[in-house]
Amino acid sequence: MKTKKLVTTAMLIAVATVLSIFQPFQLPFGGGITIASMMPLILLAFCYGTSWGLFSAFLFSLLQLLLGAKTVAAFFLPGDSQMILWHALLICFLDYILAYSTLGLGGLFKNKIKNSTVSITIGTVFALSLRYIVHIISGAVFFGSWAEWFFSQDGFYAFGSAILETFSGFSLALIYSVIYNGTYMIPEIIITTILTPIIYKALSSAKLMNHNSTN
Fold it and tell me: What is the reported pLDDT for 213?
């Protein structure tokens, strides 16, 4: 059983990593929509418990940090993107380690809601929403200086002008971060929430996932 658990975990983390690489839609300053790349982590958390889910999600976060090495390196190397050291370290922690580790909470509602479809659906929304919140905080604190430029772009028209006239300072930075990160996280939440219970039910029917595992 332990061997099966390790093999399944390694396989699903690998699938999640591969899915995270293919992003049909990418934003210029980071973030993009994948084909439910976070779903395998939700499945692990739901089937093997929150502790194992958090461990698996943490390993996945380290892989994401390595895959984002080019972006991360720009924070540390001399140039326009270089930041104060503790700023760069905190961004790495928030946008990679903490943001992706929250996916390990996807199985939190398994023993609290009897219907597995409902519980995994709520768990998916909960875990991905936590990731979204972490990105919002990081974006508002460390990238909020881009807000005025962002809302002055032609695509926003009167909407952008209204925001700039109404908000300033951290409020403006927060709205910027909610919208910017929402452009990829909201579609990601919707896609993953739709697909995860379907895939879980199919895997359970094929007895590839252990429905009786507990948190």
Answer: 54
